[in-house]
Design brief:
It is built from 28 helices and 15 strands. The chain is α/β, with parallel strands linked by helices. It has five domains: 235 residues, P-loop containing nucleotide triphosphate hydrolases (Rossmann fold); 115 residues, no CATH class; 53 residues, no CATH class; 145 residues, PCRA, domain 4 (Orthogonal Bundle); 92 residues, no CATH class. The strands form five sheets. Strands 3-2-6-7-1-8 form a six-stranded parallel β-sheet, sandwiched between helices. A three-stranded antiparallel β-sheet has the order 13-14-15, with helices on one face. The protein has a two-stranded parallel ribbon with strand order 4-5. Strand 11 and strand 12 form a beta hairpin. 23% of the residues are buried.
């Protein structure tokens, strides 16, 4: 354990390392302070130093300090830094992301927020609600489509509603902005001819552009009008999203002054990291917390040149408004000592950043942000960067390729050359140019395996198998697409003929399916339809029938492995020039499946007194959920709104109405309690919870009698999971 002397020594050493500007920001603990910290200037260091100074040199308790940051990683880094010089008290300091802070307020005041009746909405649920919203648009609605992608507007609506919540914009407010914009159109240069053109005089309106702009505004107005409808749909489903949480807290603070005063009194010192990235609602929350004092102890750190969350509604107006609000008492500190880069890099960066008009230096008089290289260890680096301008993206790719080729020709090893790009798509395009020049390259990137072509095909194949397992010959729509997979090597024209033959027999006694027709063809029954053998069809059909037969008797992992080995996919990959990459994708997907599934095989007592060997595969999470959803109960996806089972409608509840198995699992040091409601493995409903309490409530909804029975029984040891007493 670190002693007080060691803590003080660590703090003194850290304070001694601060430059004058950093020390000025840390030493001024009373009143509002705004620190404009450029990249590499040590803003995280001064946040930790300021919290340490408050705790070590005042009588403030750790619980009276609130530090808000943007990411969980930022919280962890800050906590670790504090541990060095304040010890265990670091765990008492309130370090939060904005959403985590609001969630804690909600959990502490459940009766005010009705949180007990609401659950977070999943991405798939949200998409389903948006589809329902669009389906219910009237015929003359501006966003109603009857051809093409009828749900084309989902992404736009989702972004709009999210922005409205983040910024706290009401439909009335946006309507007023739309009216103001339309009224101002004649005054905007983009809508007025600057000179005479084809019968139009200078100053005439571009009527086509005006009408186009008005149409866009009316679409926006219609979309905004549907916002309260969508929110009501969320409430009807007892769902909420993270953006709702901040708005709930803001509304509660506005309506309940005693609630607000309670938190205002608790947090005597408030610090906000990455202040340039705060949205309108996040900034409103901070304003509420500090509104009790005329000169609050508020410390904000940010850099308008590093606003990386502008897509979330973040902007520099919050920093500008903060400076204006506390102009009489505000201490503004600008950190200009950069410890990360050489001066030549900083100078080149400045030439680009200076072109940005949305900067505080251009809005606050007397402000200077010219960075100075201050790391003596980098002084020996003499290579100076330069800016190269290209006429087009294609010219840029050619230029980079030629530059790399020239370096290799001059003796530079390819492994000593690096190309850094903004998005993966640029790297993929550049790779095609490198291939043309036979330039060896290695690309390391973070990708979503599930979004890659080969894994998507495998997922589609598994989906087809599930459909066929539920309803034989019920996966035809998927089978048509699967037969086109390149590893089967079936000519597309032949698949089209098969599909046409199915369509011709869609009525009467000869009605058939694609899978059944293929079986007829291969057995000789369909010779009158086809005059020749179809290449690849025999192998594909044999594989499909075999794998369908494997599904009821094999685990998901085994089915997946067989799909790779027996479909021809592995052979196809080994013949591909990108085989190393494709094999990595397969390995990654297989690891994902193994990680996301739990396989348990054990002897289960039967009512007759014997034992039945049961193999159970339970998904820990559904495909539409993320790691952040861990700890919440997940209901069976086959249950309808009434609690009935879609797979076994004749059976009450979930299969046999009691947990087939219950077990505790140690997952990275955290206890997970699992209960699976399935008897034969064909009904993958499951629950996952941090504690027994939420699970008990769910179980009670199905059957009090069965619930009591199971809660009072102790489970036996199973596969090393240990025993769990449910009493």
């Amino acid at each position: 354990m670190i002693t007080k002397i060691e803590q003080q020594a660590a703090f003194d050493k850290m304070m001694h390392g601060l430059n004058p500007a950093q020390k000025k920001a840390v030493d001024n603990m009373e009143g509002p302070v705004m620190v404009i910290a450029g990249p590499g200037t040590g803003k995280t260091q001064i946040l930790g130093a300021r919290i340490g100074k408050i705790l070590l040199e005042t009588d403030t308790r750790p619980e009276n300090i609130l530090c808000l940051t943007y990411t969980d990683a930022g919280v962890v880094a800050m906590r670790k830094r504090l541990l060095d010089f304040i010890g265990p008290d670091a765990y008492k300091v309130n370090l939060y992301t904005f959403h985590a802070f609001c969630n804690d307020i909600i959990q502490e005041n459940l009766s005010l927020f009705e949180k007990t009746s609401l659950d977070p909405i999943s991405d798939l649920e949200k998409i389903a609600l948006f589809k329902k919203l669009i389906d219910e648009f009237p015929k003359n609605h501006p966003l109603k489509r009857y051809r093409g992608d009828v749900y084309f507007e989902i992404n736009n609506l989702q972004h709009l509603f999210s922005t409205m919540k983040k910024e706290g914009w009401t439909p009335d407010y946006i309507d007023s902005c739309i009216d103001a914009y339309i009224a101002d159109i004649p005054n905007r240069e983009a809508f007025v001819y600057k000179r005479a053109y084809k019968g139009f005089k200078a100053g005439d309106l571009k009527e086509n552009k005006v009408e186009e702009a008005k149409e866009k505004m009316e679409k926006l107005r219609a979309a905004v009008a549907s916002f309260p409808v969508f929110q009501q749909m969320m409430r009807t489903k007892n769902r909420y999203d993270f953006d709702d949480m901040i708005n709930w807290v803001i509304r509660a603070f506005d309506e309940d002054k005693y609630l607000l005063v309670r938190y205002q009194e608790q947090y005597q010192y408030i610090l906000v990291d990455e202040y340039q990235d705060t949205s309108g609602t996040q900034n409103k929350l901070v304003e509420q917390l500090i509104s009790f004092w005329d000169t609050p102890n508020i410390f904000v750190v940010g850099d308008d040149d590093q606003s990386i969350y502008r897509f979330q509604g973040a902007n520099i107006e919050n920093m500008q408004a903060f400076a204006e609000k506390f102009s009489d008492s505000l201490l503004t500190v600008v950190l200009t000592n950069n410890y990360r880069s050489t001066q030549s890099i900083l100078d080149v960066s400045k030439t680009l950043i200076d072109k940005n008009e949305e900067r505080l230096v251009k809005k606050i008089e007397g402000l200077s942000k010219d960075l100075v290289a201050s790391n003596t260890n980098l002084a020996a680096l003499t290579h100076k960067p330069f800016i190269q301008v290209y006429e087009s993206p294609r010219a840029e790719m050619i230029g980079i390729t030629n530059a790399v080729e020239a370096l290799i020709s001059s003796g530079t090893a390819p492994g000593q050359i690096a190309v850094i790009y903004k998005e993966n798509k640029y790297g993929e395009e550049l790779a095609t140019y490198f291939k043309e020049k036979n330039i060896p390259y290695y690309s390391k990137r973070s990708v979503n395996i599930l979004h890659q072509p080969t894994p998507q095909k495998l997922i589609k194949l598994l989906t087809y198998l599930a459909a066929e397992h539920d309803i034989p010959y019920g996966g035809d729509a998927l089978l048509f697409e699967i037969l086109h997979f390149d590893w089967f090597q079936i000519p597309p024209i032949e698949i089209a003929k098969l599909s046409a033959a199915v369509a011709d027999r869609r009525f009467g006694d000869h009605k058939t399916s694609l899978r059944r027709l293929i079986s007829e063809k291969l057995s000789g029954q369909g010779e009158d339809l086809f005059s020749k053998e179809i290449p690849g069809l025999q192998a594909a059909a044999t594989f499909i029938e075999k794998i369908i037969g494997d599904v009821p008797n094999a685990t998901l992992q085994t089915v997946f492995e067989n799909c790779i080995k027996e479909s021809g996919l592995l052979r196809c990959i080994m013949e591909s020039p990108d085989k190393h990459w494709e094999l990595k994708l397969l390995t990654g997907l297989f690891d994902f499946i193994k990680e996301e599934t739990l396989v348990a095989t054990h002897d289960e007592p039967t009512p007759s007194g014997g034992f039945s060997v049961m193999t159970n595969v339970s998904l820990k999470r559904k495909i539409d959920e993320t790691e952040d959803d861990d700890g919440t109960h997940i209901s069976c996806r086959f249950l309808d709104d009434e609690g009935g089972c879609g797979i076994h409608p004749t059976r009450p509840g979930v299969c046999y109405l009691y947990p087939f198995s219950t077990w505790a699992q140690n997952e990275k040091g955290r206890a997970r309690v699992h209960a699976t409601f399935q008897f034969t493995g064909d009904c993958p409903g499951f629950y996952l919870s941090e504690s027994l309490d939420s699970m008990k409530e769910v179980l009670d909804d199905y059957s009090t009698t069965i619930y009591d029975y199971n809660m009072k029984s102790s489970r036996t040891l199973k596969d090393g999971f240990g025993s769990l007493s449910m009493s």
